[in-house]
Input
Amino acid sequence: MKAETLLAELNRLRNDLDKDPSDLEWVTLHHVFCFVSYKLGDFQAYVDEQAGKGAFEELD
Output
């Protein structure tokens, strides 16, 4: 599993909402997306660890 795949889905979810700084859901998705984008290497390491535990087997 590539971290970029999960990040792209997170971005899709974020973009499905109207940009509204007063909406907690949009603010949460926006800042999580920004943070994960900034820490993509760390997120890939996490994804690799979870893949080793079988976390994504149902997606294949």
User: Anything to note?
Assistant: Residues 3 and 26 are 21 Å apart (CA to CA). The chain has one domain: 3-54. The chain has three helices and no strands. The radius of gyration is 13 Å.
